[in-house]
């Protein structure tokens, strides 16, 4: 396939779908959801889909589409049309919902996560529809709740299992790593999200009474600190139980990538100054170490000026990124039990949501097909990744479909998803689309 022709085609399609990026489909704020659904259903019909369905039984709808190909083999694409809120708006250098071109980059909320990936896949389908038809069957399942933890995706997949039958699944995205290697990703980490709060009185008190009155803020931070050591060790009994053993091949891949893992690029991207941790093997940690993170803290008076009070109530939001073998809901239970054991039984854990980790073994034929094709196209600038650092509902799909799952895509290490100035590089978009067009052909043939 002519690389330059596909590159030109991909760039044209990126501009053609600019209206998709203008839709403010923010699931956390319940905005623009129907507009996102309408855009996708209209686009699929215009592309000649044999079947388009909207599943809407649970909350935000899921859009399904089926395109008939020349072979009986079937690829399924999973994506999501919802995006994160644009806040903090004052840190954006452009209008977050107006795609803005600067040099080789395009800025817009959701252009990396995950609308740009959808547009790349639509471009590949449109390319084949205009050039003899798709080599294999292609299906899409695009949800609208991924950015709030995909609370209904398991039920949607279960209800649509017959429609979603396939030979392999392409996950929502991927892209270039810090060293500009094209990534083939075979899994996701899991997550459990929870709040911890504590009450020490029925009202705030004057801070002069701190000599003998407890303080909910101190109580909370001391309790949380009892769970986490300076060596990054999470001091919760049973927290590390059940972690799946890495195969020799997977460990070898991690060891190889460890040598080239560029933490400094990531540190520079986020302007980190005093937030660096002493980690001997950072890539291994990202791949196969669970974490515990305080996402936010709130207590007492937080407005302008001075108000000298002892807070009666304090609250924190936390998440744990988990690896295969860990049960997210049990992790929240273990944390509550550990707080009791540490003398902080008054701190209450409130479970929010969870997703299980999942990995397709790197030795799997479909994973190797993706990896070898990337090497054929891009030489040694390819990285085979056991799992992405973030979470996603991959396990829900595997439980119902029992097929290999692989991710790749169009973002890069400076795309800043979920943060201000989210962007992609046009060169990566073209490269990712070119790879996808080739993969569809290779998949159909083999």
UniProtKB/TrEMBL annotation:
Keywords: Hydrolase, Metal-binding, Protease
SUPFAM superfamilies reported in the protein's UniProt record: Zn-dependent exopeptidases
Domain Peptidase M20 dimerisation: 187-342
Protein name: M20/M25/M40 family metallo-hydrolase
InterPro entries tied to this protein: Cyt/Met_Dipeptidase, Peptidase_M20, Peptidase_M20_dimer
Species this protein is from: Weissella thailandensis
Keyword RNA-binding: no
């Amino acid at each position: 396939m002519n690389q330059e022709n596909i590159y030109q085609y991909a760039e044209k399609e990126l501009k053609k779908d600019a209206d998709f990026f203008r839709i403010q489909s923010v699931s956390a704020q319940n905005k623009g959801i129907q507009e996102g659904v309408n855009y996708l259903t209209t686009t699929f019909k215009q592309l000649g889909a044999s079947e388009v369905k909207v599943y809407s039984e649970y909350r935000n709808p899921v859009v399904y589409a089926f395109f008939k190909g020349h072979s009986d083999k079937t690829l399924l694409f999973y994506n999501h049309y919802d995006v994160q809120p644009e806040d903090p708006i004052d840190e954006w250098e452009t209008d977050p919902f107006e795609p803005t071109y600067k040099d080789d980059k395009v800025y817009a909320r959701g252009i990396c996560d995950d609308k740009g990936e959808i547009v790349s896949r639509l471009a590949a389908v449109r390319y084949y529809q205009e050039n003899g038809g798709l080599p294999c069957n292609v299906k899409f399942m695009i949800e609208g709740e991924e950015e709030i933890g995909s609370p209904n995706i398991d039920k949607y997949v279960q209800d649509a299992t017959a429609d979603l039958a396939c030979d392999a699944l392409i996950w929502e995205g991927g892209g270039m790593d810090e060293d500009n290697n094209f990534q083939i990703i075979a899994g996701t980490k899991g997550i459990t999200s929870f709040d911890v709060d504590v009450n020490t009185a029925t009202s705030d008190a004057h801070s002069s009474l701190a000599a003998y009155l407890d303080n909910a803020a101190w109580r909370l931070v001391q309790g949380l600190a009892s769970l986490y050591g300076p060596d990054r060790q999470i001091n919760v009994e049973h927290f590390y139980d059940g972690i799946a053993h890495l195969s020799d091949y997977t460990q070898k891949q991690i060891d190889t990538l460890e040598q080239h893992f560029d933490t400094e690029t990531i540190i520079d991207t986020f302007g980190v100054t005093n937030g660096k941790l002493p980690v001997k093997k950072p890539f291994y940690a990202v791949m196969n170490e669970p974490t515990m993170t305080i996402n936010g803290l709130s207590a007492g008076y937080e407005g302008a000026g001075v108000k000298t009070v002892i807070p009666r109530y304090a609250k924190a939001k936390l998440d744990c990124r988990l690896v295969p073998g860990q049960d997210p809901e049990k992790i929240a239970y273990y944390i509550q039990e550990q707080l009791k054991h540490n003398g902080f039984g008054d701190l209450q854990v409130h479970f929010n949501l969870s997703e299980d980790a999942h990995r397709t073994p790197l030795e799997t034929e479909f994973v190797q097909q993706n990896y070898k094709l990337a090497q054929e196209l891009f030489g040694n600038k390819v990285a085979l990744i056991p799992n992405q650092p973030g979470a996603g509902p991959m396990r829900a799909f595997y439980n119902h479909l029992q097929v290999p799952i692989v991710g790749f895509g169009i973002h890069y290490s400076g795309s800043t998803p979920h943060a201000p100035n989210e962007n992609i590089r046009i060169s990566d978009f073209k490269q990712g689309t070119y790879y996808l067009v080739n993969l569809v052909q290779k998949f159909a043939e083999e």
